From TrEMBL:
One of its GO terms (molecular function) is S-adenosylmethionine:tRNA ribosyltransferase-isomerase activity. Keywords: Cytoplasm, Glycosyltransferase, Isomerase, Queuosine biosynthesis, S-adenosyl-L-methionine, Transferase. The keyword Ligase does not apply. It comes from Rhizobium metallidurans. This is S-adenosylmethionine:tRNA ribosyltransferase-isomerase. The gene is queA. Its EC number is 2.4.99.17.
Length: 360
Protein backbone atom coordinates (compact mmCIF):
# COMPACT_ATOMS: atom_id res chain seq x y z
CA UNK A 1 0.00 0.00 0.00
CA UNK A 2 1.09 3.60 -0.52
CA UNK A 3 2.48 5.13 2.66
CA UNK A 4 0.88 8.50 1.86
CA UNK A 5 -2.55 6.93 2.42
CA UNK A 6 -1.72 7.16 6.13
CA UNK A 7 -0.73 10.83 6.16
CA UNK A 8 -2.50 13.64 8.02
CA UNK A 9 -1.70 17.16 9.21
CA UNK A 10 -1.16 17.62 12.94
CA UNK A 11 -0.86 21.14 14.42
CA UNK A 12 2.28 21.41 16.54
CA UNK A 13 0.33 22.52 19.60
CA UNK A 14 -1.48 19.14 19.72
CA UNK A 15 1.72 17.36 20.82
CA UNK A 16 1.60 16.70 24.57
CA UNK A 17 4.76 17.48 26.54
CA UNK A 18 3.50 16.20 29.90
CA UNK A 19 0.89 13.58 30.85
CA UNK A 20 -2.53 14.43 32.24
CA UNK A 21 -2.88 14.69 36.02
CA UNK A 22 -4.22 12.43 37.35
CA UNK A 23 -3.31 9.99 34.62
CA UNK A 24 -6.82 8.57 34.18
CA UNK A 25 -8.27 12.05 33.61
CA UNK A 26 -6.91 11.94 30.03
CA UNK A 27 -9.52 12.03 27.29
CA UNK A 28 -10.68 8.79 25.68
CA UNK A 29 -12.08 8.71 22.14
CA UNK A 30 -14.21 5.59 21.69
CA UNK A 31 -14.21 4.36 18.08
CA UNK A 32 -16.77 1.67 17.25
CA UNK A 33 -17.28 1.04 13.51
CA UNK A 34 -20.44 -0.97 14.27
CA UNK A 35 -22.39 1.85 15.93
CA UNK A 36 -24.32 4.57 14.14
CA UNK A 37 -22.38 7.18 16.12
CA UNK A 38 -18.93 5.71 15.54
CA UNK A 39 -17.11 8.32 17.62
CA UNK A 40 -17.81 9.42 21.20
CA UNK A 41 -15.81 11.49 23.69
CA UNK A 42 -15.07 10.29 27.22
CA UNK A 43 -12.35 10.07 29.89
CA UNK A 44 -10.00 7.17 30.53
CA UNK A 45 -11.68 6.76 33.91
CA UNK A 46 -14.84 5.79 31.98
CA UNK A 47 -13.14 2.69 30.53
CA UNK A 48 -14.98 0.14 32.75
CA UNK A 49 -18.33 1.24 31.30
CA UNK A 50 -17.27 0.10 27.81
CA UNK A 51 -16.24 -3.37 28.96
CA UNK A 52 -18.27 -6.23 30.35
CA UNK A 53 -17.67 -8.80 33.09
CA UNK A 54 -15.41 -11.54 31.80
CA UNK A 55 -13.50 -9.33 29.37
CA UNK A 56 -9.72 -9.32 29.79
CA UNK A 57 -7.28 -6.44 29.53
CA UNK A 58 -3.79 -7.38 28.35
CA UNK A 59 -0.95 -5.13 29.55
CA UNK A 60 2.70 -4.96 28.53
CA UNK A 61 4.73 -4.95 31.76
CA UNK A 62 8.04 -3.93 30.19
CA UNK A 63 10.02 -1.32 32.12
CA UNK A 64 11.78 1.63 30.48
CA UNK A 65 15.50 1.80 31.17
CA UNK A 66 17.71 4.91 30.85
CA UNK A 67 18.96 3.70 27.49
CA UNK A 68 20.25 7.01 26.08
CA UNK A 69 24.03 7.09 26.50
CA UNK A 70 26.53 9.86 25.76
CA UNK A 71 30.23 9.20 25.39
CA UNK A 72 33.51 9.55 23.53
CA UNK A 73 34.63 7.32 20.67
CA UNK A 74 38.31 6.37 20.67
CA UNK A 75 40.24 4.98 17.73
CA UNK A 76 43.94 4.37 17.27
CA UNK A 77 45.45 7.21 15.27
CA UNK A 78 42.40 9.46 15.69
CA UNK A 79 41.23 11.89 18.32
CA UNK A 80 38.18 11.33 20.50
CA UNK A 81 34.76 12.17 19.12
CA UNK A 82 31.49 12.83 20.95
CA UNK A 83 28.89 10.13 20.19
CA UNK A 84 25.49 9.11 21.48
CA UNK A 85 23.83 5.72 21.45
CA UNK A 86 20.31 4.56 22.17
CA UNK A 87 20.23 0.94 23.29
CA UNK A 88 17.26 -0.86 21.77
CA UNK A 89 17.71 -4.64 22.03
CA UNK A 90 19.75 -6.79 24.37
CA UNK A 91 21.37 -9.70 22.53
CA UNK A 92 23.61 -11.07 25.28
CA UNK A 93 24.71 -10.60 28.87
CA UNK A 94 27.12 -7.86 27.77
CA UNK A 95 25.88 -7.05 24.25
CA UNK A 96 23.27 -4.56 23.06
CA UNK A 97 22.10 -3.42 19.66
CA UNK A 98 21.92 0.38 19.55
CA UNK A 99 21.32 3.29 17.22
CA UNK A 100 24.44 5.45 17.25
CA UNK A 101 25.07 9.03 16.16
CA UNK A 102 27.01 10.03 14.14
CA UNK A 103 26.57 6.54 12.74
CA UNK A 104 28.64 6.99 9.58
CA UNK A 105 31.81 7.80 11.51
CA UNK A 106 31.69 4.79 13.80
CA UNK A 107 33.60 1.69 12.69
CA UNK A 108 33.87 -1.90 13.87
CA UNK A 109 36.60 -2.09 16.49
CA UNK A 110 36.09 1.43 17.83
CA UNK A 111 36.14 1.83 21.60
CA UNK A 112 33.50 4.03 23.25
CA UNK A 113 33.60 5.33 26.82
CA UNK A 114 30.12 6.30 27.99
CA UNK A 115 29.22 8.46 30.95
CA UNK A 116 31.09 11.10 32.88
CA UNK A 117 33.98 9.54 34.78
CA UNK A 118 32.93 11.36 37.92
CA UNK A 119 29.51 9.71 37.79
CA UNK A 120 30.61 6.20 36.96
CA UNK A 121 33.79 5.82 39.02
CA UNK A 122 31.97 4.27 41.97
CA UNK A 123 30.49 1.54 39.80
CA UNK A 124 33.14 1.13 37.12
CA UNK A 125 33.57 2.66 33.68
CA UNK A 126 30.94 2.03 31.01
CA UNK A 127 33.27 1.11 28.16
CA UNK A 128 32.50 -0.96 25.11
CA UNK A 129 33.73 -2.09 21.70
CA UNK A 130 31.79 -1.70 18.46
CA UNK A 131 31.37 -5.34 17.46
CA UNK A 132 29.14 -5.04 14.38
CA UNK A 133 27.71 -2.29 12.21
CA UNK A 134 24.39 -2.46 10.36
CA UNK A 135 22.23 -0.07 8.39
CA UNK A 136 20.77 3.25 9.51
CA UNK A 137 23.31 3.82 12.28
CA UNK A 138 22.62 0.51 14.02
CA UNK A 139 25.59 -1.03 15.83
CA UNK A 140 26.18 -3.94 18.18
CA UNK A 141 28.08 -2.91 21.31
CA UNK A 142 30.05 -5.39 23.43
CA UNK A 143 30.45 -3.89 26.92
CA UNK A 144 33.34 -4.65 29.26
CA UNK A 145 30.81 -5.26 32.05
CA UNK A 146 28.15 -7.95 31.97
CA UNK A 147 24.81 -8.91 33.53
CA UNK A 148 23.63 -7.06 36.65
CA UNK A 149 26.88 -5.06 36.89
CA UNK A 150 26.26 -3.65 33.41
CA UNK A 151 22.61 -2.92 34.23
CA UNK A 152 23.62 -0.99 37.35
CA UNK A 153 26.01 1.28 35.47
CA UNK A 154 23.51 1.90 32.65
CA UNK A 155 20.99 3.03 35.26
CA UNK A 156 23.62 5.30 36.79
CA UNK A 157 24.87 7.13 33.69
CA UNK A 158 22.04 6.71 31.16
CA UNK A 159 19.15 9.05 30.40
CA UNK A 160 15.49 8.36 29.67
CA UNK A 161 15.27 8.41 25.86
CA UNK A 162 12.35 10.77 25.38
CA UNK A 163 10.59 10.51 22.01
CA UNK A 164 12.13 12.94 19.49
CA UNK A 165 8.96 15.01 19.21
CA UNK A 166 9.23 15.77 22.94
CA UNK A 167 13.02 15.98 23.14
CA UNK A 168 12.98 18.63 20.39
CA UNK A 169 10.88 20.88 22.65
CA UNK A 170 12.35 20.32 26.11
CA UNK A 171 15.09 18.42 27.93
CA UNK A 172 14.53 15.22 29.87
CA UNK A 173 14.21 15.82 33.61
CA UNK A 174 13.80 13.85 36.82
CA UNK A 175 10.00 13.91 36.51
CA UNK A 176 10.22 11.85 33.31
CA UNK A 177 11.68 8.92 35.25
CA UNK A 178 8.24 8.49 36.84
CA UNK A 179 5.99 9.95 34.13
CA UNK A 180 7.43 7.78 31.35
CA UNK A 181 6.75 4.53 33.22
CA UNK A 182 3.57 2.54 33.78
CA UNK A 183 2.57 1.83 37.39
CA UNK A 184 2.85 -1.92 36.69
CA UNK A 185 6.24 -1.92 34.92
CA UNK A 186 8.46 -4.73 36.19
CA UNK A 187 10.59 -6.24 33.39
CA UNK A 188 13.64 -4.09 32.55
CA UNK A 189 14.45 -3.70 28.87
CA UNK A 190 12.33 -1.11 27.04
CA UNK A 191 13.65 1.99 25.35
CA UNK A 192 10.16 3.46 24.95
CA UNK A 193 7.13 3.17 27.19
CA UNK A 194 4.01 1.23 26.18
CA UNK A 195 2.23 4.56 26.29
CA UNK A 196 -1.40 3.43 26.41
CA UNK A 197 -0.58 2.00 29.82
CA UNK A 198 0.57 5.35 31.17
CA UNK A 199 -3.09 6.27 31.77
CA UNK A 200 -3.75 3.63 34.43
CA UNK A 201 -3.94 4.42 38.13
CA UNK A 202 -4.63 2.31 41.24
CA UNK A 203 -8.11 3.85 41.31
CA UNK A 204 -8.83 2.76 37.74
CA UNK A 205 -7.55 -0.75 38.50
CA UNK A 206 -9.93 -0.90 41.47
CA UNK A 207 -12.85 0.16 39.27
CA UNK A 208 -11.96 -2.49 36.68
CA UNK A 209 -11.77 -5.15 39.40
CA UNK A 210 -15.21 -4.12 40.66
CA UNK A 211 -16.59 -4.40 37.12
CA UNK A 212 -15.27 -7.96 36.77
CA UNK A 213 -12.60 -7.17 34.19
CA UNK A 214 -9.58 -9.47 34.23
CA UNK A 215 -5.98 -8.26 33.99
CA UNK A 216 -3.19 -10.21 32.30
CA UNK A 217 0.42 -9.31 31.56
CA UNK A 218 2.79 -10.02 28.71
CA UNK A 219 6.23 -8.55 28.01
CA UNK A 220 7.44 -6.88 24.83
CA UNK A 221 10.53 -4.70 25.16
CA UNK A 222 9.79 -1.67 23.02
CA UNK A 223 12.78 -0.64 20.90
CA UNK A 224 13.98 2.67 19.52
CA UNK A 225 12.82 1.52 16.09
CA UNK A 226 9.33 2.60 17.11
CA UNK A 227 10.45 6.24 16.59
CA UNK A 228 12.12 5.74 13.21
CA UNK A 229 10.29 7.36 10.28
CA UNK A 230 9.26 5.29 7.29
CA UNK A 231 11.62 6.11 4.43
CA UNK A 232 9.78 4.20 1.71
CA UNK A 233 6.80 5.03 -0.51
CA UNK A 234 5.26 1.55 -0.38
CA UNK A 235 4.64 -0.61 2.69
CA UNK A 236 6.06 -3.65 0.87
CA UNK A 237 9.48 -2.01 1.01
CA UNK A 238 9.48 -1.37 4.77
CA UNK A 239 11.38 -3.60 7.18
CA UNK A 240 10.26 -3.63 10.81
CA UNK A 241 12.88 -3.67 13.56
CA UNK A 242 12.67 -6.69 15.81
CA UNK A 243 11.50 -6.44 19.41
CA UNK A 244 11.89 -9.24 21.95
CA UNK A 245 9.22 -10.48 24.31
CA UNK A 246 7.25 -13.41 25.63
CA UNK A 247 3.78 -14.72 26.49
CA UNK A 248 3.80 -17.32 29.24
CA UNK A 249 1.95 -20.63 28.82
CA UNK A 250 -0.19 -19.71 31.84
CA UNK A 251 -1.23 -16.35 30.38
CA UNK A 252 -1.99 -17.95 27.01
CA UNK A 253 -4.23 -20.55 28.68
CA UNK A 254 -6.11 -17.92 30.67
CA UNK A 255 -6.71 -15.78 27.57
CA UNK A 256 -7.96 -18.80 25.64
CA UNK A 257 -10.39 -19.45 28.50
CA UNK A 258 -11.65 -15.86 28.23
CA UNK A 259 -12.42 -16.36 24.54
CA UNK A 260 -14.01 -19.77 25.13
CA UNK A 261 -16.60 -18.32 27.50
CA UNK A 262 -17.42 -15.40 25.20
CA UNK A 263 -15.25 -12.71 26.75
CA UNK A 264 -13.21 -10.24 24.75
CA UNK A 265 -9.46 -9.70 24.68
CA UNK A 266 -8.72 -5.98 24.96
CA UNK A 267 -5.07 -5.07 24.43
CA UNK A 268 -3.71 -2.02 26.19
CA UNK A 269 -1.32 -0.65 23.59
CA UNK A 270 -0.13 -1.73 20.18
CA UNK A 271 2.83 -3.51 21.77
CA UNK A 272 0.66 -6.03 23.62
CA UNK A 273 -1.50 -6.42 20.49
CA UNK A 274 1.52 -7.16 18.30
CA UNK A 275 2.76 -9.71 20.82
CA UNK A 276 -0.61 -11.47 21.21
CA UNK A 277 -1.05 -11.61 17.43
CA UNK A 278 2.47 -13.03 17.13
CA UNK A 279 1.54 -15.77 19.61
CA UNK A 280 -1.89 -16.50 18.08
CA UNK A 281 -2.51 -19.34 15.63
CA UNK A 282 -4.72 -19.10 12.55
CA UNK A 283 -7.47 -20.74 14.60
CA UNK A 284 -7.33 -17.89 17.12
CA UNK A 285 -5.74 -20.03 19.82
CA UNK A 286 -3.00 -18.25 21.74
CA UNK A 287 0.07 -20.25 22.68
CA UNK A 288 3.00 -19.54 24.93
CA UNK A 289 5.60 -17.69 22.89
CA UNK A 290 9.08 -16.21 23.28
CA UNK A 291 11.39 -14.58 20.78
CA UNK A 292 11.72 -11.50 18.60
CA UNK A 293 8.78 -10.28 16.58
CA UNK A 294 8.83 -8.07 13.52
CA UNK A 295 5.12 -8.40 12.77
CA UNK A 296 3.98 -5.56 10.47
CA UNK A 297 0.22 -5.01 10.49
CA UNK A 298 -1.41 -3.04 7.69
CA UNK A 299 -4.98 -2.94 6.30
CA UNK A 300 -5.90 -6.37 4.99
CA UNK A 301 -4.37 -8.17 7.98
CA UNK A 302 -6.70 -10.76 9.52
CA UNK A 303 -6.67 -10.37 13.30
CA UNK A 304 -6.64 -13.72 15.05
CA UNK A 305 -7.27 -13.03 18.73
CA UNK A 306 -7.63 -9.37 19.74
CA UNK A 307 -11.13 -7.85 19.89
CA UNK A 308 -10.47 -4.28 21.09
CA UNK A 309 -7.49 -1.98 21.46
CA UNK A 310 -6.74 0.91 23.77
CA UNK A 311 -4.06 3.10 22.24
CA UNK A 312 -2.74 6.66 22.11
CA UNK A 313 -2.76 8.82 18.96
CA UNK A 314 0.10 8.05 16.60
CA UNK A 315 2.32 9.85 14.11
CA UNK A 316 1.29 10.32 10.48
CA UNK A 317 2.77 7.87 7.97
CA UNK A 318 3.79 5.59 10.85
CA UNK A 319 3.54 1.83 11.24
CA UNK A 320 1.30 2.36 14.27
CA UNK A 321 -1.21 4.49 12.38
CA UNK A 322 -1.24 1.71 9.79
CA UNK A 323 -1.94 -0.82 12.55
CA UNK A 324 -4.91 1.07 13.99
CA UNK A 325 -6.23 1.60 10.44
CA UNK A 326 -6.09 -2.15 9.90
CA UNK A 327 -7.93 -2.67 13.18
CA UNK A 328 -10.79 -0.18 12.88
CA UNK A 329 -10.68 0.77 9.19
CA UNK A 330 -8.67 3.40 7.32
CA UNK A 331 -11.58 5.76 6.64
CA UNK A 332 -12.81 5.37 10.21
CA UNK A 333 -9.41 6.22 11.66
CA UNK A 334 -8.94 9.25 9.40
CA UNK A 335 -12.35 10.47 10.61
CA UNK A 336 -11.36 9.73 14.22
CA UNK A 337 -8.08 11.65 13.95
CA UNK A 338 -9.79 14.59 12.21
CA UNK A 339 -12.26 14.67 15.12
CA UNK A 340 -9.48 14.40 17.70
CA UNK A 341 -7.50 17.24 16.14
CA UNK A 342 -10.50 19.55 15.77
CA UNK A 343 -11.71 18.95 19.34
CA UNK A 344 -8.37 19.41 21.10
CA UNK A 345 -7.15 15.91 21.91
CA UNK A 346 -3.49 15.71 22.90
CA UNK A 347 -1.31 13.47 20.73
CA UNK A 348 1.56 11.01 21.07
CA UNK A 349 3.31 9.47 24.09
CA UNK A 350 2.06 11.81 26.83
CA UNK A 351 -1.22 12.50 25.08
CA UNK A 352 -4.80 11.27 25.29
CA UNK A 353 -6.09 7.83 24.40
CA UNK A 354 -8.61 5.97 22.28
CA UNK A 355 -10.55 2.72 22.57
CA UNK A 356 -10.98 0.96 19.24
CA UNK A 357 -13.31 -1.92 18.46
CA UNK A 358 -12.35 -4.21 15.60
CA UNK A 359 -14.16 -3.49 12.34
CA UNK A 360 -14.63 -7.15 11.42
Amino acid sequence: MRVDLFDFELPDERIALRPAEPRDSARLLVVDPHREAQLSDHRVSDLPSFLKPGDALVFNDTKVIPAQLEGIRHREGAGGQQVSATLHMRVGANRWKAFAKPGKRIKVGDRIAFGDSGESCLLGALDCTVEEKGEGGEVTLAFDLSGPALDEVIHSVGHIPLPPYIAAKRAEDERDRADYQTIYAREDGAVAAPTAGLHFTPELFAALDKAGIERHFVTLHVGAGTFLPMKVDDTDDHKMHLESGYVSDETAARLNAVKARGGRIVCVGTTSLRLIESAAQNSGEIRGWAGATGIFITPGYRFRAVDALMTNFHLPRSTLFMLVSAFAGLETMHAAYDHAISTGYRFYSYGDSSLLFRKD
